[in-house]
From TrEMBL:
This is Glucose-6-phosphate 1-dehydrogenase. Catalyzes the rate-limiting step of the oxidative pentose-phosphate pathway, which represents a route for the dissimilation of carbohydrates besides glycolysis. It is an enzyme of class 1 (oxidoreductase). InterPro entries: G6P_DH, G6P_DH_AS, G6P_DH_C, G6P_DH_NAD-bd. Keywords: Carbohydrate metabolism, Cytoplasm, Glucose metabolism, NADP, Oxidoreductase. The lineage of its organism: Eukaryota, Viridiplantae, Streptophyta, Embryophyta, Tracheophyta.
Length: 479
């Protein structure tokens, strides 16, 4: 329900995530009228000793450039409660403030949303505190948690069990913010609402699929966190794997969240164990200069892994999932490469295959690489693009931030774009053996230059499993 007074509690209110994502998303929802003054209060909770105004001033600092009219009104909705993450007094105080607000609001129903912008080590204790002291006595209580959900299958299962003892699955919202991105959400529509793709989307027509994430900056002061996880746990096991699910899964029975998530689980369970010779790991030079990173760290900041899906649709088609930090550019895309044309009379094979590219960011776009006749008197071919760039096609549309959308979904009770417990388990099953091998040093990260394309071994791996670089050159057949 979207009715009734709403209390949003941001735990970890003075941390990085709250600053960069949570508060800005709440503000934008407010500015667009999705949260209204009369019916929402926001409570920041953290250990620091701050006043309400102290927190408000900080948040003002995070929202530079926001219109003053909305901003001061928004800041008035915010209150601060200080306390530690395992303190009975702290959570009792928090509950008291929420209840006071609910009483004063006099609306018939109440809603409580807890956003854990916290390190996962404190999830169990914080959830226990919420469960014990802060549950909504009348309306709903929902909890948003952020990855990392554990470090491997066992630790993730342990965390799931702990949280599962405290909350029902429909109260837990596991965020993977890639599921809030416009072009990720578009994948479902693209695949299942276009006749064009239905007969093509399979092993008969597709040679390989790449799902790629690149960032043009390194771990930037997050080395201490990052070194314990590495790029596979930070990006591939969650963000890229979610994209993989949407690209590879079968058509769901309906758009009900449970139906969609059932299909994701199925495709994840069809992935074969990852082979060592289909993995390349890299670490950028200079990564270990961060004083919080140990000198002998083998943590990958780049990885390319090939997933093999053992089912009727995909047997034999490699899915290359690649992610890296400190590379030459920032980009995330899905690149579907089709097979060569059989009996090609134009002999344009070396020039390039058909590709369908979905650029998730930046500059959202979908484009199709086609071979066309090069305009002119000669009968020559070249590659060109059928291009749907959102910046051109949807010039006046503001694409919402992932976090805005996901917070709104939580308020509405829609779990479609959140990760279900069995999905998380299936995701960890795929990567855990590989991660254990990396942690034990059985697979080594090769060095690469910051600002490069990453290790050349990764390009070699892609080509070895079938990916063909498409070159833009024109090919004129011999007369
Ligand atoms: C986060 C990772 O989940 O996603 C970061 O922890 C990464 O390391 C970020 O930088 C990337 O998100 P986006 O939306 O900028 O692609």
């Amino acid at each position: 329900s979207e009715q009734g007074c709403l209390s949003v509690v941001v735990l970890g209110a003075s941390g990085d995530l709250a600053k960069k994502k949570t508060f800005p998303a709440l503000f934008h929802l407010f500015a667009q009228g999705f949260l209204q003054s009369g019916e929402v209060h926001i409570f920041g909770y953290a250990r620091s000793n701050l006043s309400d105004d102290g927190l408000r001033e900080r948040i003002r600092g995070y929202l530079k450039g926001a219109s003053e009219e909305h901003l001061s009104e928004f800041l008035q909705l915010i209150k601060y409660v200080s306390g530690s993450y395992d303190s009975k007094e702290g959570f009792e105080k928090l509950n008291k403030k929420i209840s006071e607000y609910e009483m004063s609001n006099k609306s018939e129903s109440t809603r409580r949303l807890f956003y854990l912008a916290l390190p996962p080590s404190v999830y169990p204790s914080v959830c226990k505190m919420i469960r014990t002291y802060c549950m909504n006595p009348s309306g709903w209580t929902r909890v948003i948690v952020e990855k990392p959900f554990g470090k491997d299958l066992d630790s993730a299962e342990e965390l799931s069990a702990q949280l599962g003892d405290l909350f029902e699955e429909n109260q837990l919202y596991r965020i993977d913010h890639y599921l809030g991105k416009e072009l990720v959400q578009n994948l479902l529509v693209l695949r299942f609402a276009n006749r064009l793709f239905l007969p093509l989307w399979n092993r008969d027509n597709i040679d390989n699929i790449q799902i790629v994430f690149r960032e043009d900056f390194g771990t930037d002061g997050r080395g201490g966190y990052f070194d314990q996880y590495g790029i596979i746990r930070d990006i591939i096991q969650n963000h890229l794997l979610q994209v993989f699910c949407l690209v590879a899964m079968e058509k769901p029975v309906s758009l009900k969240p449970e139906h969609i998530r059932d299909e994701k689980v199925k495709v994840l369970q069809s992935v074969n164990p990852i082979k060592h010779d289909e993995v390349v790991l890299g670490q950028y030079e200079g990564y270990k200069d961060d004083p919080t990173v140990p000198d002998d760290s083998n943590t990958p900041t780049f990885a390319s892994v090939v997933l093999r899906v053992h089912n009727e649709r995909w047997e034999g088609v490699p899915f290359i999932l690649k992610a890296g930090k400190a590379l030459s550019s920032r980009k995330a895309e899905v690149r579907v490469q089709f097979k060569d044309v059989p009996g090609d009379i134009f002999r344009c094979k070396r020039q390039g295959r058909n590709e369908f590219v979905i650029r998730l960011q930046p500059s959202e776009a979908m484009y199709m690489k086609l071979t066309v006749k090069k305009p002119g008197l000669e009968m020559a071919t070249e590659q060109s693009e059928l291009d749907l760039s959102y910046g051109m096609r949807y010039q006046n549309v503001k694409i919402p931030e992932a976090y805005e959308r996901l917070i709104l979904d939580t308020i509405r009770g829609d779990q479609q774009h959140f990760v279900r417990r069995d999905e998380l388990k299936a995701a960890w099953q795929i990567f855990t053996p590989l991660l254990h091998d990396i942690d034990a040093g059985r697979l080594k990260a090769v060095p690469y230059h910051p600002g490069s394309r990453g290790p050349k071994e990764a390009d070699e791996l892609s080509e070895r499993v079938g990916y063909m670089q498409t070159h833009g050159y024109i090919w004129i057949p011999p007369t």
